[in-house]
Predict the 3D structure of the following.
Amino acid sequence: MSEPVLEIRNLNVAYGLGDQAVRAVRDVNLTLHRGEVLGLAGESGSGKSTLAYGLTRLLPPPGVITGGEVIYHPDGGEAYDVLALSDAALRRFRWNETAIVFQGAMNSLNPVHKISTQLTDVLKAHDPRMSEHSRNARAREMLKLVGISPDRMDAYPHQLSGGMRQRVMIGMALILQPQVVIMDEPTTALDVVMQRQILGQLIELRERLGFSVIFITHDLSLLVEFSNRIAIMYGGRIVEEAPAAAIYRDALHPYSAGLLGSFPALRGPRRELTGIPGSPPDLKGMPTGCSFHPRCPKAFDPCAGNIPVLGRPGTPDGATRSVACWLHPTAQPVGR
Amino acid sequence: MTSIPDAKAPAGEVVLEAIGLTKHFPVRRRLRDLFSKRHDAVHAVDDVNLTLRRGQVVALVGESGSGKSTVARLLAQLYPRTGGDIRLHGESTKVTSGAAFRRYCAQVQMIFQDPFASLNPVHTIRYHLSRSLQIHGNAGDDLEGALHELLERVSLTPPERYLDKFPHELSGGQRQRVAIARALGAQPEALLADEPVSMLDVSIRLGVLNLLRDLKERLNLAILYITHDIASARYFADRTMVMYAGRMVEGGDSETVTQSPAHPYTRLLIESAPDPDRLAGLSEAAGEDRGNGEPPSLINPPSGCRFHPRCPAAMPRCSADLPVPLEIGDAPGHWAACWLYDTSENNRSQNDKSSDDKSEVAR
């Protein structure tokens, strides 16, 4: 496994303060390695989007980071904590080192500006030394890179289709060649055919430019095909983290297994499926102990009382994965 | 206590049919067009044929812009059709408003995609379900009992816990169950479900689909299931129809259509769907689409087969003649609107003609 590029340690994010605070992200420990695609899966209320916005310090009020650190390892430089950066340093960090592609590309582009303006705007803000000529050249290059004909430079967002707008967003994110790209449900609003094309393009770009990706989605079957490692979140915590193949063939956490079993198979034998009974928990009124236990088919004594610790399980491939479940008590917690 | 009776009609009976259903939406004309003869229209749905039978689920699969939601709304008669026919129990029907429309709604009910938008946020569940029962005259003497029974049918138990809640107090899955209960209050024979689970969390989708399946069996309902997820069509539906750019391109029983897709567009859909078994990586499957991955404009659709600009197997004939539904022959009822499957005399003589032309040129 290559070296880490982003280390999230004991991150806690809440909305609001004091007694009324809703803890959306609880004690999250996660590492993104150089050049890898890390999938982050979860349903409503799992905290996956809050995690993404928290680590890039884009939380909308009343979101507050209540603890933890996010250590970033720049290419050939000293590691530093993103959460401790000054405003000026944060501005230099954003887009240059880490970029984010938001959910719903339809709404992320400014409707009254041409896409050329929006692309060059990023360059103007983060690299003031570039001349106008080189900015335009770079913008053209990015459009070609994401498969849009450069003669669309002067188009307004409404003149492009949803798929093209999403590709413009991806191009904008990559324009300064960041090390880390975070994508929040980038293809959810798109059709399967467009989704596959865009992700194919992304893989090609990643191979060429070498960045790492955090890919956030609820579509676990897509992640199994596309990412190197997958982390599954439930109720604000990471419940399992493993290589994609390991999660698919042998998920340890009952929630991961249940989630995988919620996708009807397109090939292979037709089986009776049930999904997971109940619904994702309300963050304001979480169950005691393991937040999944009310829905868990394998819940037993310790589950209702104690929160399971995320750590390496005792299985043969235990060194490469972690799980938070009393079925697999661990001697090696992650993070502490 | 008045109970809502289980249906006694025989399974397999045809409930609702669409024959040559067509809908064109006029495009707003600009000032300079006012004096021209141009009347542009969006050809949203063209020549759609569908049969809904009791106890059967028919899936209509297509991507956004394919026209599938428009087909549902046309079948629910929420707006008038431009052409073709809709038959309820074999009789042609056209209703727009008033008592006739209400009588039609009592037999054909719709379930919408967004469970929050389809429930009135200022009214309780009790209000929603009571209205459904009362408008269609199914409340009987014991309204409370009827309400309880409706909620029990959609597994929202104990009913007392849900009746006085507002929609925002329920989860997405619960709201969709209320929407289903509301549809059942009319005691319909056909349910048109327009992407009923797309906006729900993944782990609860199956619960709602399994509920619909149980209801279909117990009440002998005919269900139209509209979706863009072909895997769920395979799981839930008996028959699957595929739509592209406003036209039907393939149909057959779900297993055959998903395991042996005939039409190149269906093949593209199946190849593009996420497949965890294909762990090797995405790049292998891509490349089947010759176009830019997008459906065509419906104001000026391509001539002949609407898929021909993107089709890897396109022949000269495809841009000239609109393909007709042709039997594939591998399973009963499996057809595709694609010239690749044309084995008739017509085809052979066409080939002869073209080879004559070629020999003319060569000389």
About this structure: The interface with chain A takes residues 63-64, 171-174, 201-207, 210, 228, 230-232, 234-236, 255, 258-259, 268-279, 281-283, 285-286, 289, 293-294 of chain B (CB under 8 Å). The domain at 14-25+42-355 of chain B is CATH 3.40.50.300 (Rossmann fold).
